[in-house]
Amino acid sequence: MALPQRCAASSAPLPLAAGRRLRQRTSVAAALALALGCAICAPSALAQSQPALSGKWQLSCTSRGGETRQISLEIDQLGAALSGSYSGGRRSGQLSGSVQGNEVSLELAGKRRSAKLTGTTDGNTMQVHGANGASCKGTRQ
After folding, report:
1. Where are the domains of the chain?
2. Cα(54)–Cα(77) distance, rounded to whole angstroms?
3. Which stretches does DSSP call E strand in the chain?
4. Secondary structure of residue 66 in the 3-state scheme
5. Is the CATH number 2.40.128.120 carried by domain 55-140?
6. Residues 133 and 55: beta-carbon distance below 8 Å
């Protein structure tokens, strides 16, 4: 950026210190503008990098022994945090979890037991696994 070499009101050259102050102010203003731009754009960029999972889902889970169960999920998403409810067969309860990029983590908490599931999602399907060996494939309803 070219700086004026002369004062606008007269033909006298700018003092060296005044030119330095003008450069410093310009640099500070540019840095502030860049920081503000990043602060405004970063949340939307992060929000776009993780799938939106809010809504109804249907999981088909197969146990280690080969038994298959259907589980319905109702997911609410706020940022990376997931909450909601689940029901399947005679069991139902609260759901909590998180999503980071395409990695998803769910905890299904019932009256007597809870199950932790981890895996991946693309926003319309998910594939999660439990510590007990269960494998679940889910689709958005």
Report:
1. 14-49, 55-140
2. 5
3. 55-62, 68-78, 81-88, 91-100, 103-109, 114-121, 125-130, 135-140
4. coil
5. yes
6. no
At residue 140, the 3 state secondary structure works out as strand
- Per residue in 14-41, pLDDT (tens digit) is 566 666 666 666 665 555 555 555 555 5
Query: Which residues, other chains included, contact 123 with Cβ-Cβ below 8 Å and sequence gap of 6+?
Result: 51, 52, 53, 140
**pLDDT per residue over 85-119, tens digit each?**
999 988 999 999 999 999 999 999 988 889 999 99
Q: Which of 53, 60, 101, 103 is nearest to 78 (CA)?
A: 53
pTM of the predicted model as reported, rounded to 2 decimal places: 0.65
Q: Which residue has the tokens 């450069």?
A: 23
DSSP assignment of 69-92 equals: EEEEEEEEEETTEEEEEEEETTEE
